[in-house]
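Narrative summary of target 7.
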Amino acid sequence: MTYPNAFAGVKKLVAAEALQIISAGLGIIMAILSFAAIAGAANALATGSEASAAGAVASGIGIVLLSIGILVLGIIATVFTLIGLKKCSADEPKNFNIAFFAAIAVLALGVLAGVLTAVPVIANIMRALSNIANVCVFVFTVSGISELAQKLNRSDVVNLGKTILILMVAGSVLSIVGTFVSGVFAIISAIVSLVCYIAYLVYLTKAKAMLESN
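Modeled conformation, tokenized:
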């Protein structure tokens, strides 16, 4: 095995991405509940319906619980990512070190967003900044894997990395916008994020297989 540290690191990144997929799935449910809560509250105000008001409250409780779950999964995934990137940097320091420090920023901003949940505007800003830092993690992780792939003469992994990078950046932009927008767009944003995470997991799995076989 030419790059044992990178192989061990990418294995951690695969585990982290699996958690991100679960988190993205919960994000879709939360977006749907948010839409339901807004609709229920509007109907309760317009008609005075107690059932609509109760539904809106129940949706609100669900949103809070899901937010906590997403936060916890996000923190665990980021810790796995940090461990993985640190291991990878032993074989390719140029890109993976930058990705490592960007992941630290993702973790710090995610914690701040969770702490400031009671102040939605500031919490959303923290989440948006976290998403921006996450873009940096994606960019430099893919760049690091591509560097190793070039040295191993794996042009297929290099080319796939370029496609995944475009997809992840586009998905991250939608996710940033979705942070500040509720309703149907937030649901679409959450679904796109899930698709991007799955595509990224496929890429990381392919990278892991490449490193294991060389």
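DSSP finds six helices and no strands in the chain.
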